[in-house]
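Q: what sequence does this backbone want?
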């Protein structure tokens, strides 16, 4: 996928060499990233993403760059890329480990969404045992150490599914490999709590907000795999894909067909929220 990169203030083609072989992000995965979606050149909830990156950096002992530098990287890459609707990935590493060697990369690529049928008919999900211990900091931050998520996704695909649902040793659903998960049970929206060891998604937060505004009761609580399989509805959330309905979990159909009515309402409400916050004319920003 073509793109433009802002690397420590320099604009480069996305495939142009720019990172030192001794960069600790490349060698050890010592770094963080945020993936954001730009709508007509405007990033939705950019401040929330930067808040999470800075907070995560402190948690893993990585000196966070200044917010101003991060904002300049995003703005510079978007301007250079000239893409109206795009994926913006912000990556921060500790560089070579020497003082002042930190690496900051803002990569802008054309927007690529999941297949249309995932939205209109729902995706297939498969449960995969989570690999990291519950207390691991890597379960709460967007670390460059992403191999466990990639392996989970590969396992789900091997099982004939599109998405992996990470399940812990207590048979509690934590999150999807690269997305947060919601269910609708008895008319109530349910989603695993942050305390279960999941990444607190920016879109997850926004969905809970629009649910409250729409009068849809929501609970952040433990959700078992069997409960999710028997739920009336299920969907996944992420900044790029927004809301993706789930048609089946481990081969068992969820509800009476995806997307369900609550999922449809929340999808529309989410898009209205995006349009309102970014000052877009269209209420259907997908």
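A:
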């Amino acid at each position: 996928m073509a793109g433009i990169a802002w690397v420590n203030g320099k604009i480069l083609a996305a495939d142009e060499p720019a990172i030192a072989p001794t960069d600790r992000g490349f060698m050890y995965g010592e770094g963080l990233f945020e993936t954001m979606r730009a709508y007509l050149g405007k990033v939705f909830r950019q401040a929330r993403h930067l808040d999470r990156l800075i907070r995560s950096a402190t948690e893993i002992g990585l000196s966070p760059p200044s917010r101003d530098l991060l904002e300049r990287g995003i703005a510079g890459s978007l301007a250079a890329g000239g893409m109206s609707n795009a994926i913006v990935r912000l990556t921060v590493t500790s560089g070579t480990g020497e003082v002042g060697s930190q690496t900051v990369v803002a990569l802008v690529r054309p927007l690529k969404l999941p297949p249309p049928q995932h939205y209109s008919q729902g995706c297939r999900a498969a449960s995969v045992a989570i690999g990291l211990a519950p207390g691991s900091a890597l379960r709460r931050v967007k670390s460059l150490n992403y191999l466990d998520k990639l392996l989970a996704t590969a396992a789900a695909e091997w099982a004939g599914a599109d998405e992996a649902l990470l399940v812990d040793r207590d048979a509690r659903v934590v999150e999807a490999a690269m997305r947060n998960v919601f269910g609708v049970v008895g008319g109530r929206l349910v989603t695993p709590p942050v305390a279960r060891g999941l990444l607190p998604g920016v879109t997850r937060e926004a969905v809970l907000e629009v649910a409250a505004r729409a009068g849809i009761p929501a609970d952040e609580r433990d959700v078992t795999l069997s409960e999710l399989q028997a739920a009336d509805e299920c969907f996944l959330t992420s900044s790029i894909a927004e809301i993706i309905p789930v048609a089946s979990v481990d081969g068992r159909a969820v509800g009476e067909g995806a997307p369900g009515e609550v999922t449809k309402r929340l999808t529309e409400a989410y898009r209205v929220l995006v349009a309102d916050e970014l000052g877009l004319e269209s209420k259907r920003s997908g």
